[in-house]
Input
Amino acid sequence: MYKRLLLPLLFFFDAEQVHHWVCDMLRFFYKLPLVPGILKKLYVYEHPSLVREVAGLRFKNPIGLAAGFDKNAEMVDELAALGFGFVEIGTVTPRPQPGNDKPRLFRVKEDKGLINRMGFNNKGAAVAAAKLRARQSDILVGGNIGKNKTTSNEKALDDYLSCFEDLFEAVDYFVVNVSSPNTPGLRDLQEKEPLTHLLRELQKLNTSKKAPKPIFLKIAPDLNNSQLDDIIDIIRETKIAGVIATNTTISRKGLKTTETEVEKIGAGGLSGQPLRYRSTEVIRYLCEKSGNAFPVIGVGGIASAQDAREKLEAGAALLQIYTGFIYEGPGLVRQICQSLVK
Output
């Protein structure tokens, strides 16, 4: 019903407008009597074999929601009722910012993908932290943090430390985002020297806490093997928890969508099925080259149980979905979990 009736209807409208409309409807209906229970009955699937212990945290199942969907932590309880094992909020910046000019979210329907140039639009770390403190579900939540657009790379560390402090008591793990293509200059922070310094300072702050939180690094799929080797060295040196592989890609290779249409859309990060194979390659490379020295959370092009198994077999400890969730519908998490149990 979702793919045959609702999805074609939604695709008549602007992608970002539809996202906000669907989120508003989900929050509205969740407040009605009996609805939370009905959602859980429909979408939550639990089984002992789905439980994962990663970075000292216990996940009810290995399927999480990637950052970008719930930027401001406004519907964590609602998403928990859709069966996710964990939810990642953000990307959050210290100060609120509107993001890039609209339109900035586009469907690439023939390829079951999305292109976005959102630009870290969010209400700021303090707002996200307050929302998380009010949540009622016990679902694990990750805080994806970044720098404000107006903050220079030389001052970027201050922004990451500020977000870390604001969110520390409200999240279960952190994700350092230096791999989005939509904030000018951000990807320069992926270079070995600035990235090592950034993660070392975050870890210094983290270990000063009574109960440190796991820190993951989210990387781009566009890194070459030499750069991935640097990532492995950096993880070992800074002793952060692990890697999220991968963010969106700036590549447009192999798309079914016409070149004219792609050029009309313009710049932005591509997600969804076109990213499936490359993200799996990155996961496999990191796991094999490091000797599984740290957990890798796999994300990129997961739209079926087969896609999920592919990444788990490549070495991923956990998975995240986003674009596949939009194209396949809310039943995708339960479908994957049931398949993993079988």
In short: The radius of gyration is 19 Å. The chain has a mean pLDDT of 97. The chain has one domain: 42-104+119-246+273-341.
